[in-house]
Fold ComEC/Rec2 family competence protein.
Amino acid sequence: MLRIALFLERTLRGQSGHLFHWCPVFLALGIGLYFSIRFEPDQALVFGLLALAIPLLIWAALDRSGFMAIPIALTLVIAGFTLATWRAHEAAAPRLDLPYNGLVAGRVIDIDRSSSDALRVTLDQVAMWDLGARAPPERVRVSLHGKAEGFRPLPLQRIKMKARLAPPAGPVEPGGFDFQRHAWFQSLGALGYTRALPREITPPPDGLSTSSVRFALSEGIRKHLSGDVGAVAAAITTGDRSHLRQSTTEHLRTTNLAHLLAISGLHMGLLVGVVFAGLRSVMALWPYVALHVQVKKYAAGGALLAAAAYLALSGASIATERAFVMAAVALVAVMLDRRAISMRSVAIAALIVLALRPESLLSPGFHMSFAATTALVWVFGVLRSPSGWPVPGWLKPILALCLTSFVAGAATAPFAGAHFHGYAAYGLPANLLAVPIMGAVVMPAAVVAFCLAPLGLEGVALAVMGWGLQWILWVAAFFADLDGARRAVVAPPGVVLPLITLGALFVMLWVGRLRSFGLVPLALGGWLWVAVERPDVLIDESSAVVGVMTEAGRTVNKSRGQGFAVRVWLENDGDVVDQQGAFERREDGHKDAAFAYLDGHAIWVKPGKVKSDQRVACRSSDILIASEELRHSLPCRVITPKTMAKTGALAIYVRGDSLKFVSVAETRGTRLWSPPGQAQ
């Protein structure tokens, strides 16, 4: 035991100077622990953990051995758990508990497009009628259909409309993406649509505001650049995606170029780089300034101000906030004569982002941006040498670009596959052709256009920007139209991404030969992903749509309706067929026959009312899924809307003679964002 303790102490001492890189990892472990438990921690538990942190900090302060890292790590885990608990309670807001069909009024705070390409508005300061004593949701999101399609909302405009709203839906299958949790942290209490033309109550307030400036910039850009080019230009400069067609977005997503739309690390980095280089070059032209002023620090300060302005004008989304924090950390490091891009800078940025928004740990943007950044910093750190790369000078930029695209693509591939159920087969060549144009043409032209706008001369710069975007869109369309451009990937079990992440971090952050042990969780995560078993039967929370796994793939009982749930099921299966194709897989179309047979278990699906004399020859080992309540008893197991209201979506695994039922309520537990009345 003593030898083990000495070995551990010596090993931890060997990490001196590198342990700070692990701080965001242990903070994230605490946050992840909060989101993974199946109950909501009470005050006694939280205060007990905080009390435990006090002796841990005293231990760390008094201990001068390598073991002091242990209490610090435990304290960070407690801090992450506490931060996530506080943030979840702080985000609490009223939400709709039952469907609503009536008048809705509110102030427009966001305009975007839904997956069906419909214009969509998010309202705050919501007023709703016929709610009784219940408070209206803090925010609602309404898609505009029918007559409402001709309405063009304005930021901060107060509008009124008749809409159909419903509470945020839960996961479409156990262990799936929890939109109710996502909506909870956005204070989004209801979603729906309207077909009636909205009516303006009050116009946007006079005077300048961030929203009005964003809207004016977006309109000005699209006056010079029409069509998809103008829509993309507005999206990457102001965050306005309300004119961006889904077909364009799909082309970019299929070729792994969708990151060019999100105002995140790439855009913020390019903007900061252009402003920093421009200011430094201009100041260096004046001999007195170049000789007596620390030009680099002033240029970094100017770039930081430009990044802050970009953050405000782009709408300050979570991805943009994260990118700003990372850019700010790098620029402040320059002003303090520290290395701008290092693993320490990445760790500081991750700590700040997690402290401000603990829930961002669950977002694809957090995973992919920090995965790409960490991998790039590590790879280029390994390749750094006093003599530089042993290649000709003209080849270095080309090699660096290829290596950057490859490393970033490889680092984000597991997260892209897990979150978006696929990977872009031609992502590398598409990025090699598009990203340099984004950095060398589009973003510099955007900065110049912004500087020339007060003089009314922005048109020339926007034209150059448009040429660059035309090239990027052509690249996306070309590769997206190739056969096999997007390969489907089955959804992994929930434990896979944490295993892969921890294994990769151990390889990159640990110093010494023990880093090879990080390959073990990497391999284990990969094996669990390959060996994943998908449910034999899936039932959505309304019991209206059922999906059964067959030899040809999953088949569903409806060719239309509940399209979101079916699409997610098929994507999680790694299946590229659409709902109509899945519906046509059903082999037996007889009205009175069971929907499917699995190892002797008949799966009966009955839409509408099941009459007492209706022929349902089910046995005790069978399952009947009905979209309405039954008025008589049957020998088989019956699943109805009342059942689903308690359990949420259901997954069924066939195990020979037995059936294993797994529900959303069982896997999620009782959390703040769980709907009331769901039973575990």
